[in-house]
Amino acid sequence: MITKVCAFYQFAALPDHRELREPLRAFCAGLGLKGSVLLAQEGINGTIAGTAEAIDAFARELAHGDMFGGRLDNLELKFSTAEAMPFGRLKVRLKKEIVTLGDAAADPTRQVGTYVDAREWNALIAAPDTLVLDTRNAFEVAMGTFEGAVDPDIKSFGQFKDFAAERLDPAKHRRIAMFCTGGIRCEKASAHLLARGFAEVYHLKGGILKYLEVVPEAQSRWRGECFVFDERVALGHGLQEIGLRERDKGHHGDE
């Protein structure tokens, strides 16, 4: 049976995130969902999987239910499918940050870069005065990235601020277009750069996953595969699952 997968996040003030953990865990368990959810004072982030009906009920509760009281009114949601359940269990964890950067000045609820729709992304990154920046970890970049993108060569997102301090200059890099898997790391990274005085910072709304979902392969500037943090390993255009068997045969997306 085909499993529906939902990747989601939103930066929002959740001072009661500790009290939300058990009700959310119980709600997900009651729907038979598996996956991982992170709760922090700054918001929510996760990927879960289950039946289509269960995923739809989950998304409705987050956005419109009593549990969060309307605070998740701008959820970034991305849906895909898997041939088998890609998670072994359900985890709802409390964290200091829903994506760890370690910079208190990087607060996406106060300031964030300019969102760019996936359909407008090609034009932005083709402009000669745009620095295209991949904010993901090195092993993710190695599996696939956009043409001409700069690889910061980091092992974890927490190292991005060191890369920015050493390699980026507000006076030289006047227009930066960044991207990541689903958009969440870019929100933190763009908030960080804006706090450091960078003037024009753009990021791909919905991340690579949204781009692969809506941009036809014939028009795509993406090369390779997009790593995802579950047992599917990687997704291609149309968010098609790329199984381990295909990877072992040497399948590499657009190559």
Automatic annotation (TrEMBL):
Broadest EC class assigned to this enzyme: oxidoreductase
Enzyme nomenclature, EC number: 1.14.-.-
Record keyword GTP-binding present: no
Reactions mediated catalytically: uridine(34) in tRNA + AH2 + O2 = 5-hydroxyuridine(34) in tRNA + A + H2O
Family: Belongs to the TrhO family.
Protein task: Catalyzes oxygen-dependent 5-hydroxyuridine (ho5U) modification at position 34 in tRNAs.
Protein name: tRNA uridine(34) hydroxylase
Organism of provenance: Bradyrhizobium stylosanthis
Gene from which this protein is expressed: trhO
